Amino acid sequence: MKGMDDMSDQVLSPGNVRLAAAPAAREEAIRAAGGILVEAGAVTPAYVDAMLEREQSVSTYMGNLLAIPHGTNESKDAILRSALSITRYDQPIDWGGEQVRFVVGIAGIGDEHLEILSRIALVFSDEDEVERLLAVGDADELYAALGEVNG
Domain locations in the chain? Predict the structure, then answer.
């Protein structure tokens, strides 16, 4: 398979996919999503603050149980490489009055995040696909099911 030898080519790596049992507040979920990106070496901690800042100005809720928190345009210099984090929560998070089960943290160099976003949107626009993602049993299965976002 293309790119499997070099995980650094992939915006989504297995270690960036998590399942979380405890329901979180929106801010906690954003911090967790950003924290995974920091751990992965994709962003500096300043990017997490920018993710919180963006959420205050505009909700990143996308519909179909999905939110995609990301930083402000001013935080581009805090991005070291393009990457995603994906967390599925067992219980819905109240996201400004909407229900969220999937929190996808995103950091993109240049305009790369636009292509990544369009691939995620395609997956989550299909309700059957969302049901399938809710049903997978562990993080490895979730990664496998979402591997197509790597292109």
Answer: 7-146
Instruction: Quickly count: other Cβ atoms within 10 Å of residue 134's Cβ.
Output: 13
Phi, psi of 108 (to 5 degrees): -130, 130
Enzyme catalytic residues: 70
Partners of 88 in beta bridges: 19, 102
pTM above 0.85, yes or no: yes
DSSP class of residue 53 equals H
151 neighbors 115 (Cβ within 8 angstroms): yes
Nearest to 42 by CA among 104, 9, 72, 84: 84
Does the domain at residues 7-146 carry the CATH identifier 3.40.50.720?
Answer: no
Q: Does residue 109 register a pLDDT over 90?
A: no
